[in-house]
Amino acid sequence: MVQTTAHPKSAKPRDVQVAEIGTNTKVLRSRAWEQLKFEVEYSKEKGTTSNSYLIQGHQIALIDPPGQSFTEIYLETLEQILDWQNLDYIILQHVNPNRLATLQRLLEKAPQAKIICSKPALNAIKDTLDTIKIQIVKDGHCLDLGQGHQLKFLNVPTPRWVDGICTYDPQTQILYTDKFFGAHFCDFWGALLRRSNL
């Protein structure tokens, strides 16, 4: 089942889709139908999503909160499916200043949550967020959330994203890749969900 939360600002407002994509696993797709300012190089104007994932085992992990332009609607949607006190981990597969604004708000609501990231990501956030719990992961490290969700981390630095990591969940056989395999088309994935009856 796909659940959508939207703010009625225009004919095609930004929204957040929530869908089950695996065992105890949800995707939160923050969608912007207009071209975002940092994507002018693509000239697609077919919309963009920022995908975030919630995995609930005995412990709960949130992967890749979106950037600042989605903060309010994202938090409103997440609050409908998550008790803030139960959030154990926030996994940052890539850090940028835009994402830090949402991260700060998340930590206000769930101060107990530990951030999981690479060492280069830590260097990018340590001056901005000074009172947080951070766990650095290296290539091959695992995080056991329970119920078969043994997340495995893979370092994937690139010249543009030196802090990049991917996360693999063998329980659902899903590889979370953040910036890799991205596509700037909002409607494609929604149409795929409808055809799949997810």
Spatial sequence of strands, sheet with the most strands: 1-2-3-4-5-6-7-8
Might you state the CATH topology name? Metallo-beta-lactamase, Chain A
Q: What do the pLDDT scores average to?
A: 83
User: Strand-and-helix sequence, N→C?
Assistant: EEEEEHEHEHEEEEEH
Which percent range fits the helix content? 10-25%
Q: In summary, what is this structure?
A:
The chain has 198 residues and is an alpha+beta fold.
Tell me about this structure:
There is one protein chain. The chain has 198 residues and is an alpha+beta fold. The protein has a single domain (2-196), classed as Metallo-beta-lactamase, Chain A. 21% of the residues lie in helices and 31% in strands. Strands 1-2-3-4-5-6-7-8 form an 8-stranded mixed β-sheet. Strands 9-10-11-12 form a 4-stranded antiparallel β-sheet, with no helix packed on it. The radius of gyration is 16 Å and the shape is globular. It starts with a strand and ends with a helix. Residues 188-198 have low confidence and may be disordered.
